[in-house]
Specification:
Blueprint lengths: L10 H16 L2 E6 L5 H12 L3 E5 L2 H11 L12 E6 L3 H14 L4 E7 L2 E4 H9 L3 H42 L1
Antiparallel strand pairs: 1-3, 1-4, 2-3, 4-5
């Protein structure tokens, strides 16, 4: 009888831990969700909706994910890696991925968002919900461009008004002289 504590881990498990660790370090954000009660079709639909926002939804064994989180230096993630969990790795618009995950959770109550990590900050479920409420990157850029453009449009209007009003006044004076 061999002692399980002295056995070396299997190579595929070591490779999986290394893969998860690498993905944790390279992702802009990682969300943890519980998928208990979801059908294969539901998970496929979720993965398709997340793919549009640059996110990938993957299921790993919690033990391997915990080892990888420790290896990657993301200690706070271990507390939420309990039960049937999936990791959503985001590379790109974090708010769009959080929205897609929230919308999928609204459509299917079996999907529960547990939290995640953004950079080095550990997120609770309410933090992920707050991220989902943020406007998209494109909307923020449009607002910023509008804020930059407004004073310029106002200045251009004022600069055009002076010669235009001068021309109207001059035309009125000529009409008055002619009469």
């Amino acid at each position: 009888m061999t002692d399980t504590a002295t056995r070396a881990p299997r190579q595929h498990k070591v490779d999986t831990v290394a893969e998860i660790s690498k993905r944790l370090q390279s992702a802009d954000a990682v969300f943890v969700s519980e998928y208990r009660g979801l059908t294969v079709k539901d998970i496929t639909d979720l993965r398709n909706s997340l793919r549009g926002s640059g996110a990938e939804h993957t299921v790993y064994k919690n033990t391997l994910a915990r080892f990888a989180a420790t290896e990657a230096g993301v200690e706070g993630l271990n507390e939420i890696l309990i039960g049937p969990t999936a990791l959503t790795f985001v590379a790109g618009d974090v708010a769009a991925a959080a929205k897609a995950l929230r919308d999928a959770a609204k459509a299917n109550p079996s999907l529960v968002v547990k939290g995640g990590v953004l950079g080095e900050t550990i997120l609770s479920a309410s933090d992920v919900a707050a991220l989902a409420d943020l406007p998209s990157r494109e909307e923020l850029l449009a607002r910023f461009a509008g804020a930059l453009q407004a004073p310029l449009v106002k200045t251009a209007g004022l600069l055009q008004a002076m010669p235009r009003n001068f021309a109207y006044g001059l035309a009125a004076l000529i009409d008055k002289q002619a009469a």
